[in-house]
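Thread: Modeling a multi-component assembly for a lab meeting

Hi all, long-time lurker, first post. My supervisor asked me to bring a structural picture of a complex we are working on to next week's group meeting, and I have zero experience with this. I have the sequence lines for every component (909 residues in total). Could someone generate the structure of the whole assembly? Inputs are pasted exactly as I received them:
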Amino acid sequence: MKKSLLFVYAAILLMAALVAGCAQSQDPKGTGEKKEGSPLAVYSGRKEPLIKPVLDAFEKDTGIKVTLRSGGASELANAIIEEQKYPGADVFIANDAGTMEMLRQKGLLQPNPSPALKAVPEDLRANDGSWIGVSARTRVIMYNTNLVKESDLPRSIKDLADPRWKKQVAISASSNESLIGHITALRLSMGDAETEKLLRSLMSNQAQSLKGHTEVRKAVGSGEFKLGLVNHYYYHLQKQEGSPVGVIYPDQGEGQMGVPVNVAGAAIVKGSKNSESARKFIEYLIRPQTQELFAKLNYEIPVVEGVPANDARRLDQFKRTPVKMEQLGSELNKTINLIEKAGLP
Amino acid sequence: MTKENVASSLVRPEGRTRQRIFAVKKIFLPGSGPPAGIVAASLLVAALSAIPFLYILLRASQASPEIWIRLWRSRIPDLLVNTLGLAVAVTAVTVIMSVLLSYLIIRTDLPGKNVMHWLMAVPLAIPAYIGAFAYITFFGYNGAAQHLLEAVSGLPPGAVKLPSIYSFGGTVLVLSVFTFPYVYLLAAAALKSGGGDLEEASLSCGLSRWQTFFRVTLPLMRPSLAAGGILVFLYVLSDFGTVAMLRFPTFTSAIYLQLTGRYDRGTAAVLSAVLLFIALAVIFIEWRWRSGTRYHQGEGGNRRPAPVSLGAWRYPAIFFVMAVVLLSVLAPLGLLGFWSAAGISGGSLGSDFFLYARNSLITAASAASACMALALPLVFLSVRYNSRLGKYLVNIIFAGYALPGVMLALGTVLLVSSGFPYLYGTAALLVIAYIARFLPQSLQAEESALARVNPSLEESARLAGYSAWSAFLRVTLPLIRPGLISGWTLVFISSIKELPATLLLRPAGFDTLSVRIWIEASEGFFEQGAPAALLLVMVSALPLKFLFSRDLSKGGFRRGSNTV
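Re: Modeling a multi-component assembly
Sure thing. I ran the full set together rather than chain by chain. Output:
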C-alpha cells in the first residue's frame, strides 16, 4: 500500500513539474506581458482549414509570426469582452458583420485608417475601419431537385410559410449569427410586425430548426427536407458532394426585398500591441490572391473588385436587400427580442 | 424472529429509527471539532470551485429585473419541462443499467467480466457529440439501419419507417449509452469495497439471492447510485451539443441564444442561475433523503464474497451486457474506425498528433490527480467530521456541475485577465479550469467511498497508537481506494474530452486531442474528426486498462467454491 501511495504522489509531482514546464515553454518570458514584436495573436471563428493556409502564407511572405486560437466565433467574441482589461487577441476573425459591429459599439475594436481598406466597398466595412468584410455570403433557399419541380419553387422567403411546404423546410437554430443577420434584414425591410408574422407562420408550418447550416444542407441533400434556408456556399458545398440540389435567390422581382447579404471579416482588437502587424494582416486578407483563395476553398464571394467568384453569383449579379452591415450589429438586440417573442427555437 | 426479520435487521434496526447498519455516534474524535487544517484546506479548495459561481452571481446581478418577466414569457417554461423530463428519464435509465451491470460484472461468474469492467468506462471517452453523430448515421433519415432493414426484409424503400432518433426516446437512448459509466463506475466501486459479509450473513439466515440483493446489496450501493445519478442528472442539464444535434431543444439552447446570439452574459448568467437552482434542489432532496442513513461495512468487511453463480441466468446476463457493449462501445467505435480509415488515408493524422496526445494526457492526468487530492479534505470534513459547513460546501460545489462549460470558461477568462494575467495562456490555467469544472466528480466518488468505511476502523487504529495521518494512510486510504480510482477515472476522461473551456483557455498553439476533434469536426464534418476521436479513446482507455486490471485482481476474488 505504502509503495503505491508513493507512486501516486510521485506521479502527481511529476505531472506538476511537467505542467510547469509546459507553461514555461509556452510563455518563455514568464511574465505574460506582451511586447512589441511578439507573435500576432489571431482569434478565429472560421473553420481552421479555411484560414490556416492564409496564415501560413502571411507568415512566409512577411516574416511575422502568427499564433492562432480557433474557436466558435461567438464564444471568442464573448472572451474578448471578458478579457478587455488584458486583451489576448490582436486580430479577431468572425463570420458575421453583426458580431464585429457589436464589439465595435462596446468600444473593443481599434480604428484603422489604412487607405488600403478602400478596396472593400464602403457598405461592407465599418466607417472607422476597425473591421472589414473579407468575403460576402448571401442568404438563399436551397432545394432538393429530386423532390421539387422547378415550376413549384418558392419565389419569395414568404412562400416558405405556404402550407405546401409544411414540415418540408429546414433552418438553423436561432442562435446562429447568419440566421440572426437574416432576420435583422427582414425586420429592416418589412418591419417588426410583418417579420414576427412570418416567423410565427414558419413555426406553425413546422419548419424544423437544426443545429447548424451543415446539418441543413445535408438534410436537403439527402431528401429529408425539400427546402433549406442557408448561406449560399452551403448549397455549393452540398452540390460539390454530388447531391441533387439547386438554389433559389428569392425576392428578386420589382418591389421585392432582394436577398440579404452578410460578410465574414476581420477586426483589430483594442489594446493590441501589434497594431502594425495587425494592419498588415488585414491588408493581406484583401489582396487579390487571398480573396481568390476564400472563393476557391469555400465558394465565398470576394469583396474586392475584379476577383473571380468560383461558381457563386457575384454581388452585382442579383438584387440585394439594402441593409448596411453596421445595422446587423446595432439592431442585434431588437432582433433577438423578436426571436424570443416569436419563440423561434 | 422470522428468518426475514433477522436478515433485515442486519440492515434495518427495528422501530422507527433511521436505517443504519452500524450505529455511528458522533464520536469520531470525541470532544474535538474538525481540525483547523482540514477546515482551512476545505475552504481553499472551495474557493477554487467558486469561480463559476462568482461569475454567475456577478453577471446576473448586473442584469435588470425586467428580464425575468421577458424570459418567463418566452419559451423558457417549455424548455424547462423538456429539460427536466429528459434529465429524470436519463438518470433513471442509467441507474437501472448500472445496478444490473455492476452486479453482474463484479459479483457474479459472468464470463469475461474483467474485460467487460474495463469496457464499461470506454463510452465516457467518446465525446458525446461524436457519439450522437454515430447514432444519427445509423438511425437518422435514410440511415444505415433503414438500409439494413430494407435489405434484410426485402421491402421496398420507405415501406417501413424506423422510429425517429430525433425524439425524446432517441435522445434518452443516446445520452444514456454515453453517460451510464458515471453511475456504473461508482456503483462498481461500492460493490468492490465489500458488503460481502453482510450478504453472506443474509444468505445464511435463509434469505434468497433476490431478497439479499434487495435488502442488503442494493442499500449498500445506494450512496454510490445517488452520487452517480446526480452526476448524470446534472450532466444532462448542462449538455448543449448532443441535444442540439438530436433536435431536442433544452434549457441550454436558451442560454446559448443569449450568450452567442446577443452577447448578453447577464441574461445568460440569470438563466444559468436557474440551472444552479434546479441542481441545488435535486442535491438537497437527495441529501434529506439520505441524511441519517449510513451504510458502513462491519469490521473486516473489505472481503469480497465468492462470485455468485449465474446458472441458467448467464445467457440473458451475457445478452444484456453484450447489448450494452454493442450500443455504447462497439457500434460507435466501429463507425469511428470506419471513418478514421478514410480520414487517415486522406492524410488527416499527422505526426503532430503525438504532441496533441501528450498535451491531452498531461493536462487531464494532472487535473485528475489534483482533484483526488483536493477533494479529500472536503470529503473528510463532510463525512467523517459530520460538519455542517463541510456538507454545505460539498453540496454547493456539486451543483456547479450543472453549469454549461462555456460559463465556467468565461468566468475563468474574466478572473484571470483581471487578477492573474501571468496565468493567461499557460497550460496550468487549463488544469485549473478542469479542476474547477470536475471537482464535483471526485467529490461524489470520494464521498460515496468514504461513507462506506466504518469510522470505528479508524478509531481502532487511533486507539492502537497510530497518528491520525498514519491511520488515514494505513486504514482509510486502502479502503477507499476503489472509490479513488473511479473518481480519478471520471475526472481524467472528462478532462481529456472537455471542450468549451479548452477552446477558450488553451495557450495558442497548445492543441489537445479534444480541440483537434472539434477543429476537424466543426461545422458538421464529424467524419473528419474521427481519427482524433479514435486516438482520444485509445489514449484514455489504455491507462484505464492498467488501473482496472490491477484493481480487479487485487480485490481478492476467491475462485472455486460457491457458498450458495
